[in-house]
Amino acid sequence: MAEELTIDSSPPAFSADDEAYMRRALQLAEHARDAEGEVPVGAVLVHEGQIIGLGWNRNITLHDPTAHAEIMALRAAGEKKANYRLVGATLYVTLEPCAMCAMALVHARVGRVVYGTIDPKTGAAGSVFDTLISDRHNHRIEVQGGLLAEEAATLLRDFFRARR
């Protein structure tokens, strides 16, 4: 009797820690929206079980097109670690990173990115571009998307509806 081969194509499960860090990123996204009127995106950078950087969108507040949540978290972590290399760190971000943020993550040697909802216009973690895993780079980042995706998408959707 031949064994039936099954292929599990479901995404790997997220841990309780993954969910806790993403919930913190969602809080930061709410802060961006409520305190600064920014597009609600939040990011938490974790290394060896410790938060080393927090960020939220600050483009408008800082008059800086590079002040995305991911970049702000990377800057904070770089200062804290006194190093621009963040080897093995995991970034939790509520929205799939754009190409700019993806390349910054590659340069920083982040080990893993976990994002909430996809960015169907500029996403660079698999939806539009595959920047984080491109074999053209000397570093590739493990990517998992969809963690608390509905909560993240709702924040963004409600924010943009309110502005129209």
What does this structure look like?
By secondary structure, the protein is α/β, with parallel strands linked by helices. Helices cover 38% and strands 18% of the residues. The protein has 5 helices and 5 strands; from the N terminus they run αββααβαββα. A 5-stranded mixed β-sheet has the order 2-1-3-4-5. The longest helix has 21 residues, at 16-36. The mean pLDDT is 94.
Question: Which key terms come to mind for this protein?
Answer:
five-stranded mixed beta sheet, 164 residues
Quaternary organization: single chain
Beta content: 15-25%
Query: What's the mean pLDDT score?
Result: 94
Q: Note the overall shape.
A: globular
The count of β-strands is 5
**Class by helix and strand content?**
alpha/beta
Instruction: Report on the biggest sheet.
Output: 5 strands, mixed
Q: Count the helices. How many? A: 5
Residues in helix, %: 25-40%
Question: Rounded to an integer, what's the Rg over CA atoms?
Answer: 16 Å
- The ordered H/E elements are HEEHHEHEEH
Low-confidence stretches: none
- Spatial order of the strands forming the largest sheet: 2-1-3-4-5
Termini distance?
A: 62 Å
Give a summary of the structure in a few sentences:
With 164 residues, the chain is of the alpha/beta class. It is built from five helices and five strands, in the order αββααβαββα.
